[in-house]
Structure formats: C-alpha cells, structure tokens
Amino acid sequence: MPFYEYKCPHCDITFSKLRPFSQADAPAPCPECGGEDTKRAISLFASFSKSSDGSTRAIGGGGGCAGCASGACGSCNHH
Fold first, then answer.
1. Contacts of 58 (CB under 8 A, 6+ apart)
2. 10 Å Cβ neighbour count for 15?
3. Cβ atoms of residues 35 and 10 within 8 Å
4. Is the dihedral angle over the CA atoms 65, 66, 71, 75 positive or is it negative?
C-alpha cells in the first residue's frame, strides 16, 4: 500500500496517509483542523542504484515534470 500526500487549504499543512490505490483520490480529513476538502499533492520520490564499483547514484527524485519525475522529459521539455 502506498503513501499519498495531501494538502489542507485551511491550515496549509501537508500530511501523508497510507491507503490503497483505490482510495488515492478519496477525501482525507486533515489531522490538524479536521477539514475535509484536502487535495492530493504531487509526491516526489527517489531511488538509488549501486554500481559494480560500489558507487551509489540517485535515480529519479523529481526535478522534472510530475508525469515522468525525471531530470529531462520529452513531453514537457524540462531540462
């Protein structure tokens, strides 16, 4: 089950909630003020890869568009 991030328009906090894919867009009450009109935020992630020489490099991690989460994207021309 993935974590999703939500933002409350009333108290301006961002919070995470663990829920199934089927409930990703369902309302998530704000844990701070109880507001129920929170919006799902775009979450960024990073993964790491270790090469045969032992060095580690980041893969992904955002920096590009929300659709691809890469550093450069053909669909948005973000570099």
1. 46, 47, 48
2. 16
3. yes
4. negative
